[in-house]
């Protein structure tokens, strides 16, 4: 689908949407309803039973100007694929956050759930490595505030319930998700991962790529010569130099390691500058996961 891109562009291969600027209101609730309590208990039980954020094959911590990732060192990374007949093609990334649920971007979803499949345990998309698990989508729930004609309005997040739970092993694991409201400091080192284009308008790589990106705090990212008012409180920025996410990285994780060694997904890849994937002072913008923690918990608990 061809559209005019204004100010920024989404990163998915299959769909691009126009952008207009507007306000996003954050959830300011301070109490916890029975609904929220049940959701919190549900997610706690998932994490306790299966663990999260631990890679059997630790990533090489040294994808524009990035590098090939160590195979299966990001075991929560998934390939979201869209089908046409019997043929499926990679369209977005995503993150396994429980055995039955994948988190991706709202703009990655433009068709019915039957059009998509999720491939877990993938490294080289051009080779059947024997580690892959393929699941269809039983249900896809996109945030009610997502507006396909306004990426910069925020709420660019969807959850996919798998037709069957993933079998967790060394190649397929869940990522941790941060507590509600968690904010990373300026220059905190994180990693973008995906099968996105290696450079603007370039080819899609077969093997999973990674690049280290420093978090850019909200004050810097919203400066007039950076993104300005396009970036909202419910977003997080990272990069802005020669490394960035690119088309096909959409929906994938911003992986950030906590001091105890666990990996948390702090962002869902959303958009970059319309001038290219690695534009100076235009870092990649992610949906900030901690701004949607209550929504994530509730959605998984009640679906």
UniProtKB/TrEMBL annotation:
Predominant location category: secreted
Pfam families noted in UniProt: Trypsin
Matches recorded under InterPro entries: Peptidase_S1_Elastase_sf (IPR050850), Peptidase_S1_PA (IPR009003), Peptidase_S1_PA_chymotrypsin (IPR043504), Peptidase_S1A (IPR001314), Trypsin_dom (IPR001254), TRYPSIN_HIS (IPR018114), TRYPSIN_SER (IPR033116)
GO cellular component: extracellular space
Domain of life per record: Eukaryota
Classification via Gene3D superfamilies: Trypsin-like serine proteases
GO biological process terms, semicolon-separated: proteolysis
PROSITE patterns found in the cross-reference section: TRYPSIN_DOM, TRYPSIN_HIS, TRYPSIN_SER
Record-annotated Peptidase S1 domain positions: 63-301
Any one GO molecular function term: serine-type endopeptidase activity
UniProt-listed Enzyme Commission number(s): 3.4.21.36
UniProt keywords, alphabetically: Calcium, Disulfide bond, Hydrolase, Metal-binding, Protease, Secreted, Serine protease
Cofactors: Ca(2+)
Compartment list: Secreted
Recorded catalytic activity of this chain's protein: Hydrolysis of proteins, including elastin. Preferential cleavage: Ala-|-Xaa
Name listed for the protein in its UniProt record: pancreatic elastase
Lineage of the species this protein comes from: Eukaryota, Metazoa, Chordata, Craniata, Vertebrata
């Amino acid at each position: 689908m061809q559209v005019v891109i204004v100010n920024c562009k989404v990163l998915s291969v299959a769909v691009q949407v126009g952008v207009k600027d507007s306000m996003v209101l954050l959830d300011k609730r301070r109490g916890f309803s029975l609904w929220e309590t049940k959701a919190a208990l549900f997610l706690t039980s998932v994490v306790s039973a299966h663990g999260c954020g631990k890679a059997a094959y630790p990533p090489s911590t040294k994808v524009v100007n990035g590098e090939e990732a160590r195979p299966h060192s990001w075991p929560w990374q998934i390939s979201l694929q869209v089908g046409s007949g019997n043929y499926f093609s990679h369209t977005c990334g995503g993150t396994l956050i429980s055995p039955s649920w994948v988190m991706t971007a709202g703009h990655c979803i433009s068709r019915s759930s039957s059009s998509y499949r999720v491939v877990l345990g993938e490294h080289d998309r051009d080779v059947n490595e024997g580690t892959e698990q393929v699941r269809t989508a039983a249900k896809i729930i996109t945030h009610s505030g997502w507006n396909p004609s306004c990426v910069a309005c925020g709420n660019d997040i969807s959850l996919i319930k798998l037709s069957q739970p993933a079998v967790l092993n060394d190649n397929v694991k869940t990522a941790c998700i941060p507590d509600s409201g968690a904010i990373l400091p300026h220059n905190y080192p994180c990693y973008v991962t995906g099968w996105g284009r290696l450079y603007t308008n370039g080819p899609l790589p077969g093997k999973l790529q990674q690049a280290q990106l420093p978090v850019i705090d909200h004050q810097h990212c919203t400066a007039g010569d950076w993104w300005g008012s396009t970036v909202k409180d419910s977003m997080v920025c990272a990069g802005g130099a020669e490394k960035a996410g690119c088309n096909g990285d959409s929906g994938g994780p911003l992986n950030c390691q906590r001091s105890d060694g666990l990996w948390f997904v702090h962002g869902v890849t959303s958009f970059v500058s319309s001038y290219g994937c690695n534009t100076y002072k235009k870092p990649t913008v992610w949906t900030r996961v901690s701004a949607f923690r209550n929504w994530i918990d509730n959605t998984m608990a009640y679906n």
